[in-house]
Amino acid sequence: MRFTFPRISRVQLHAFSLYSLEPNAALQIKPGVTCMAGANGIGKSTFLSTINYALTGVVPHPKRHFLSAMAYQKEAADFTKDFFDGRIIESDRDSAAVSVEFSIADKDYVIKRGLFEASALQKCHISHQGKVLFDSEMHEAAHADAHYREAMCRDIGLSSFEQFVMVQHFLLTFDESRHLVFWDKEVSAALLYLCFGGDPKEAAMADTLNREMEKAGSRGRNFQYQANNLAKRIEILEQSLAPQGGTEPEVERARAHYEALHDAAKEALVNSEEVDARLSDAELKVMQASASVAGLRAAYGEIFERFVNGTANARQHPLVQLALADCKCPVCSASDSQVAPRIEAKLLSEHCPLCDAALTRTSGVDAGVQAELEDVDKKLAVGRRQLEEAVAILDRHKRAATAAKQKVASTYESIATFEELNRQAIDGFKVLAATQDGAVAENLKAIQAARRDQLAERDHEYLQRDKYRDELRGLQRELAKRYSFVEQEFVPRFKQLAETFLGIDLNISLVIGQATGLHLELEMRGNSRRQQHQLSESQRFFVDIALRMALAQHISAPSGEATLFVDTPEGSLDIAYEDRAGKMFADFVRSGHDLIMTANINSSKLLRTLASTCHAERMEIVQMTGWTELSDVQENASGLFREAYADIQSALNSTTAAS
Description:
Layout: E1 7-14, E2 26-28, E3 33-38, H1 44-56, H2 69-80, E4 97-104, E5 107-114, E6 121-128, E7 131-135, H3 141-156, H4 161-171, E8 173-174, H5 185-196, H6 200-241, H7 249-308, H8 318-326, H9 339-348, H10 367-421, H11 423-429, H12 439-502, E9 506-513, E10 517-524, E11 527-529, H13 537-555, E12 563-567, H14 575-590, E13 594-600, H15 605-614, E14 619-623, H16 632-636, H17 638-658
Parallel strand pairs: 3-13, 3-14, 8-12, 12-13
Antiparallel strand pairs: 1-2, 1-4, 4-5, 5-6, 6-7, 9-10, 10-11
């Protein structure tokens, strides 16, 4: 799937009190880089958040806690209610608004949203090549917002507006919260379904299944907690009903043996669950290995097609190679020791093993294609061995799981046998009061019944959780297969961007984990970087930005490249990496994407490198120091600001002249 994202052309503020000198600031967004440059605390980050608010109706939540696209939008909506308080003075509340003009392919949008009425658009105008498709002046404000959401989903190619909010806030926005997609496995999994899944409806289904699985698991844990509390009350009541004066020695021995049997059963159950978890991991590894072999086979077939255009080398055909390797005919499934010799005889006699036609030799063998074919063939052999190893491990875990389940069954059978043979002793220390009359005994029976109900509800919820998990695994398998076919396009794109910044080679791979589902894992110098602390602050920030850029490039349609919003973390960089970060940003813009970014006005090499690379035709500096009053410290240093602006402008203009 490729999505057509909005390309912003104009932003207009209305009565935005925070910018006291420019409360009605209007900004033309031209293709390339738009840099909101200014002093600390001037409102650069707020400007990015306001554009996001205009597009999505919510301000990005600073904590970025993600359970599902729907749950996040609700959480962000609650945060948005108070976001503009303090930024807008009381007298401007009714008139404060933001307007944005943008296009999605050949559709033109003009929207205006009040800062304190998120769910209703003051204006929504949609046209196509001059023809008006929708004008909110003819409709109520609430209807305009609903129509806007539907039109956005349809024109972008997403299945819900919540998906757009997720992509815009989590993927296309790197703001001052510094949320890192690479190490947030929950949101990473949701984004991967959209970026590589092939169908946004599947992404929505995965989101729903994950949400319902978490809900069912949470309800199951709640029922277990309530059952445990009831068990404690039962124990207290049983003790109050126990015979006075102690118990007989044989009853004590029976109690100890009975408890030992229950401990053994508990241990067997825990072991069985652990074995099941390892079995699930083994199943996922087989799926990954199978997907890899399938991808290599497809690559082999494609290269072989090119190979046979230059020579009729029947021995290298995938079906012949498979038959020779497995001693099994891939057409009729005949399998015996003579399959390979018969094929070899046909080949030696220069006849086709399938139709017996005479083979024609040609001399124009493309050595390069043959080398490719041999390389893929070697990889395919390695992949098959890895698949065989994964299958062998899976078989071992299956046997272990069967043995563990038998162990659980046998321990519970031992308990049942003991209960049958020692009913009198058990009654002596556990259910003596069950046959007695009185309020305490009746209360005990009621609590025991309630506990059984709680456990039954727990089992029901866990069954539901497992059902959702099985459905989700099916989607995970499909995603893993699809990723194997596109990683040769996506991974080099990410590596190029990240290496531009880091200066070292790195890699990413798709990982399927038992607890977290799907996520991307970073490798640097051959070592995994699973935790944030394994990289420096600047490495974390800009590698994550590189990932966002690569994903944005991967999922954008040619007619609607995504715009990235970056609140630049230049404070984490030294001068060498400022230059590299500027080059990475420039590479992204040269690929046809837009970048709306913020930057402090200082001697940053990042802005000068970006300016000298993009030049004035593809970069504009917006001087926000003129939008609001500066502090005394900043006012006293206004000359320094002017010098920094002049340096950047000089880099823009000199490059223009040189070009």
